[in-house]
Amino acid sequence: MASQHSVRLTKKAPSKIRDAFMKRVRNAILRMADEASEEILIAALASGSDIGALALVISNPSLEDPALEIDPLAPARARALQHRKEIAEKAGALLSTGEAADILGISRQAVDKRRKAASILAVRVGKGWKYPKLQFRNGQPLPRLRDVLRAYHGVEGWVILDSMSAEASAYGNRSIIALLEQSDNRMLDRAILEIEEHYAP
Fold first, then answer.
1. pLDDT higher than 80, residue 119
2. Which helix (H) or strand (E) holds 71?
3. 63: number of Cβ within 10 Å
4. Which of 151, 164, 168, 198 has the fewest C-beta atoms lying within 10 Å of its C-beta?
């Protein structure tokens, strides 16, 4: 994976800004690697991704990086990135707009319209949108998905996906996604009410 990233980077046109950024990041990583214990580094190497490894080291409470005095939220941001990766893995495939359009049998423009109307769930990835595949069944959004999504009142997509994927004892150790899949309308009514109360604007 790392070698693939390196190949892509070397194909970029020369840039003073890019070179300056790489130098700064490289220096920061060298400082963190020097200060981290071997236990932390071993745990980082066991991470399933480059971002996960970096997040684990940045989140190390024993890190004594002067940069944290300037940006004390850096460890929290790193943990957030790692948590987002875990949410994505738990949710399964994240579809592009074109892939979602193919599943639903509609145009890309129609997918975008449904996203804006909170009829289907999308999460921001880079400059674009991705659509969790688990919200679709038999070429359609899960029944009552729109009711659930609108109860969140425009909350950020990653937060919604995390909430909908989490199992809760109140729902019989099931997630909201599971309630949708099973068409458990009684529990869904309860979940929607709780969501509306929690995320009321």
1. yes
2. none
3. 17
4. 198
- Inter-residue contact 195 to 150 (CB < 8 Å): no
Note whether 53 and 44 are within 8 A (CB). Answer: yes
- pLDDT for 126-144, tens place per residue? 789 999 999 999 999 999 9
Q: In this structure, what is the dihedral angle of CA atoms 127, 130, 175, 152, given to the nearest 10 degrees? A: 50
Phi, psi angles (nearest 5°) of residue 123: -120, 145
- Paired tokens of 87: 């949410």
Give the amino acid at 175: S
Which residues, in sequence order, are CB contacts of 95 under 8 Å at separation 6+?
103, 130, 131, 132, 133
pLDDT tens across 38-47, in order?
877 887 787 7
Torsions phi, psi of 130, nearest 5?
Answer: -125, 150
Rounded to whole angstroms, the Cα distance separating 34 from 173 reads 43
At 142 the three-state DSSP class reads coil
Q: Letter for the amino acid at 119?
A: S
Q: Which residue has the tokens 């080291």?
A: 57
pTM across the whole model = 0.62
Question: Tokens 């932390």 identify what position?
Answer: 40
d(CA 139, CA 105): 7
- Tell how strand 94-95 and strand 136-137 pair up: unpaired
